[in-house]
Specification:
By secondary structure, this protein is of the alpha/beta class. It is about 45% helix and about 15% strand. The chain has an eight-stranded mixed sheet with strand order 3-2-1-4-5-6-7-8, sandwiched between helices. It binds 1,4-dihydronicotinamide adenine dinucleotide (NAI). This is 3-hydroxyacyl-CoA dehydrogenase family protein.
Length: about 290
């Protein structure tokens, strides 16, 4: 019999975790959001407030539903607050050591029948699962950015994932109005394995000063009908996350197209992370408006 999933923990309320918390709460689920400090939690809370405010202004969410959505999300810096969660989605930084540490802690906190899911883009779900006591209850639940908007979800099954765990994860994604697919555990799954070679190529083209950022993006938007150009998309993803994803794929497959373009590393080192830091290939926040990359 399928598990009842009424309470979901979200660990890491950055770019993705905030969106995942929003989409869960919008669909009637009680959300416990955990991050490592109050500043990160405050950032996550304000992301959700802004995003739902925009949805309300566009007539996609009425005021009462927005208040109910926000009331379903509580925030904590303590992983132990997830003891009663039916499922936990981990959305911390794309680093294997950090994810394993979070999963090992969660493994001791949640009930044995609770599902542990990672939103990783490219790391091995099998390695994360194997570091826990009960690897069969671990799957990937890979949302797309922005999570409240994009309909696709990749449910990643490892060779030891229990079939009922995979089924329940698929059912949850469907309940959120998403179109889930089930995939095996290979770096980048389907979408990122196809997407990131292209994004990396665009960064290299920009680095070689072959064309301006606006013209690179216009080529794909206006010439190829993509909703967003590759450099604007890299800014949306976050350059630190994009760098980690490329590096993981490159270490796994050694394809040159996945060797991270040096400019990505340089921009990350300089704190130019994209939208989340106010500046990446483009400038977003007021305080950066006098400088142009
Ligand atoms: P982010 O850098 O925006 O947010 C990460 C959050 O995790 C931050 O709030 C940080 O404070 C928190 N965190 C770090 N260590 C923690 C710990 N030990 N315990 C609790 N919280 C911790 O990263 P982003 O972009 O949201 O990525 C998160 C995950 O989602 C990564 O695995 C990434 O690959 C994946 N992902 C990212 C997408 C994107 O477009 N950015 C799309 C789909 C998946």
């Amino acid at each position: 019999m399928a598990r009842e999933i009424n309470t979901v923990g979200v660990v890491g309320v950055g770019t993705m975790g905030a969106g995942i918390a929003e989409v869960l709460a919008r669909n009637g689920i009680t959300v416990l959001a955990v991050d490592r400090d109050d500043a990160a939690l405050e950032h996550g809370r304000s992301t959700i407030e802004h995003s739902t405010q925009r949805a309300a202004e566009r007539g996609k969410l009425d005021a009462a539903d927005r208040s109910a959505l926000l009331a379903r999300i509580s925030f904590s810096t303590d992983l132990a607050s997830l003891a009663d969660a039916d499922l936990v989605v981990e959305a911390v930084v794309e680093r294997l050591d950090v994810k394993i540490d979070v999963f090992q802690q969660l493994d001791k906190i949640v009930r044995d029948d609770a599902i542990l899911a990672s939103n990783t883009s490219a790391l091995s779900v099998t390695e994360i699962a194997s570091a826990t006591r009960l690897p069969s209850r671990v799957v990937g639940l890979h949302f797309f950015n922005p999570a409240p908007v994009q309909d696709f979800v990749e449910v990643v099954r490892t060779v030891v994932s229990a079939p009922d765990v995979v089924e329940d994860a698929v059912a949850l994604a469907q309940r959120l109005g998403k179109s889930p697919v089930t995939v095996g555990d290979k770096a980048g799954f389907i979408a990122n394995a196809l997407l990131f070679a292209y994004l990396n190529h665009a960064a290299s083209m920009y680095e070689a000063q072959y064309a301006t950022r606006e013209d690179i993006d216009a080529a794909m938007r206006l010439g190829c009908g993509y909703p967003m150009g590759p450099l604007a998309l890299l800014d949306l993803i976050g350059l630190d996350t994009a760098y980690e994803i490329l590096e993981t794929m490159y270490l796994q497959d050694r394809k040159r197209v996945h060797a991270p373009s040096p400019i990505l590393k340089q921009m990350v080192t300089a704190g130019l992370l994209g939208r989340k830091s106010g500046r990446g290939f483009y400038t977003y926040a007021e305080e950066y408006s006098s400088t142009v990359v």
